[in-house]
């Protein structure tokens, strides 16, 4: 089975977005360079960020996100983000009315069921779980193998926390990678089990 990686861009003080779900400058690093990150032509990063991010993105088979993120993005219009094959949505509600049943989205109840479904779909590829409440629940349940953070030099002061509502200590190993890009510091940690 592929490993489960909790991931997001994050402020220096540990927030994914402000109180109104706005990411502010957290994704500015994705347009701060001259190397195209994907075919869109919109995302351009520094070469070091390309080398780190593209290699990671190419390994992702499935992304797990919560219903809140799904709703905020309008379900990515039925197309999984960043070339991912499938999205597993953690929700207590059914798919939205009129949702295309052929879209590669799977609606499940609970993080344990989401990780199991994602690992089944991903095979040996990485299962990426969005940081925040769902990622924090998976971390607390012992389902996360690695934490990746793209730390952006901004302080929010308050907002949506990277680790969601985690309220217990979890030890990480020393960072496997620390890479400085333009307006971002890429960090990768293994979870200490």
Automatic annotation (TrEMBL):
All residue ranges annotated as the Bacterial bifunctional deaminase-reductase C-terminal domain in the record: 5-170
Protein name: Dihydrofolate reductase
Source organism (scientific name): Kribbella speibonae
């Amino acid at each position: 089975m592929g490993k489960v990686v909790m991931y997001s861009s994050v402020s220096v003080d540990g927030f994914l977005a402000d109180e109104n779900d706005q990411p502010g400058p957290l994704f500015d690093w994705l347009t701060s360079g001259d190397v195209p990150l994907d075919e869109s032509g919109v995302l351009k990063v520094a070469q070091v960020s390309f080398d780190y991010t593209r290699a990671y993105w190419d390994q992702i088979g499935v992304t797990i996100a919560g219903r809140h993120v799904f709703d905020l993005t309008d379900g990515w219009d039925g197309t999984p983000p960043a070339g991912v094959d499938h999205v597993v949505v953690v929700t207590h509600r059914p798919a939205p009315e009129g949702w295309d049943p052929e879209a590669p989205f799977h609606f499940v109840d609970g993080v344990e069921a989401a990780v199991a479904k994602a690992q089944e779909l991903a095979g040996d590829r990485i299962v990426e779980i969005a940081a925040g409440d769902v990622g924090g629940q998976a971390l607390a349940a012992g389902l996360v193998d690695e934490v990746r953070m793209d730390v952006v030099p901004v302080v929010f002061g308050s907002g949506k926390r990277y680790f969601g509502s985690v309220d217990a200590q979890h030890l990480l190993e020393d960072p496997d990678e620390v890479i400085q890009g333009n307006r971002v510091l890429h960090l990768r940690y293994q979870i200490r089990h």
